[in-house]
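ARCHIVE CARD
Drawer: 12
Card no.: 0347
Subject: one protein chain, sequence and derived structure
Cross-reference: see card 0346
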Amino acid sequence: MYRIIQTVLAALFLFVAMAPGLRAEEGLRDLVNALGEAKLSEMDEHIAALARTGKPEAVAILEALGEGGLYARKADGQVFLTKESGSNLTLTDPISGDSAGEAPKAALSKIRVNNSVRRAVRTALGSLTLLSPDRNQRLRAAQSVLQSPDPDALGAIENALAAEKDGAVRAVLEQARAAMLLLSNRPVEEKKEAVRLLEESGGREALPILSAALGSADESLKPDIEAALASIEQAQAFWNAGQNIWYGLSLGSVLLLAAIGLAITFGVMGIINMAHGEMVMLGAYTTFLVQDVVRTSFPHLFDWSLAIALPLAFLVTGAVGLALERGVIRFLYGRPLETLLATWGISLILQQTVRTIFGPTNREVGNPSWMSGAFEIGGLAITWNRLWIIVFALAVFAALLFLLKKTPMGLQMRAVTQNRRMASSMGIRTPWVDALTFALGSGIAGIAGVALSQIDNVSPNLGQGYIIDSFMVVVFGGVGNLWGTLVGAFSLGILNKFLEPYAGAVLGKILVLVLIILFIQKRPRGLFALKGRAVEA
């Protein structure tokens, strides 16, 4: 008897515990079934009631309603999510998500929707998503509402603001509320407060919102909107100039990486190496091969793929450069035109070789997780891959300076640069200095290719886009001077980015070339001329 009583009490407690959930489910089901009986003029109220439940099941139901995928069974009025299956419809229970079999289309009636219903659905979905427990989902929803403000959703935004604790999401919600206030029938004082908030935010999103509101705004509100627009445009002009400087530094770091190896070979050997761009290309393809092996055999090491590719690219391109100098260039010293033609021919051979092996199409080189994405500082948008390339370019520059200033090889290279005959008479083996210098310059071009693979297409023509700019950087900064190469690269990068908005990319490069020609007329040795008896002679 005791056990029977115990069992009955346990069942009673279980029923009591489940009863609220069952009642909630039945309440949601009643709201869904009511959609099948409602007139179009009543749909807004039923949709709002569904949204107020805050149930995750309501999202799928409302999405299906907006897409015309809700049907009511004529026999009992029950509403189902449906999909077409030949002449029948596959039925899914909207609450539990369980399959309810199939039924002929004649046994069901489609719940009709129009533009007004779809608008109500969008508003309801926005309010449901804004109350999501997932912070990122709420942020995306708030940004979506900000981009397409709808005054009908003002109540949902205010409810979401009252419940929101995250600072970033609140900031976006406040901007969205301000944008909706300007389109609503609220009092002018509230709209003035909204204008002030949008002005303080100073974001690019505020400009089109305020501009759109200006035409239909009350006369007493227009001065506030115009003053806010002027303030935001002034702030945006400042941030745009800062963004151009950032883009210029980013381009300058790319030019520095591409030109720094050329500065060494051109300065020490006087060789116009037209195959330098192909060394950059070989470094990029080395990165592609490394990532291909890592993806197929060691996928967990993908974030380390660039660290693996850097020394390999240096060794591969350095070896190619050493073979090129020992096999061709050393026989052409003192004949600059023939050297130029020979290296140009070698560049074509290297391009065609790569095209034959890998094909003419672009190859995919992925960004590691630590180089993906972006962040903002004020009004500046900064991507991680560009930031790391700037850091990498400066690190390569510092390492090269250390090599030239603090090592025996660097001392010999500087001696040969300043006075080749005197260096030879002091016992320095100038032919081997030339060979190692050419290999070093080619190796640096290879690691430049590793960096460029993260921001440019890896193709057989990759190096051709940087060879002319590299020569301009070297000549402008001063042949063989690393500090000149650094200043020249960043100066030309920033100048390019400031000219492009006004003159276009092509005309901007032409203007830069003209300015460099005029500058060289005044300073033939560039910004930082090398000193030495042979140089001054």
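Annotation on reverse: Strands lie at 70-73, 79-85, 88-92, 99-104, 108-110, 374-377, 380-383. DSSP finds 21 helices and seven strands in the chain.
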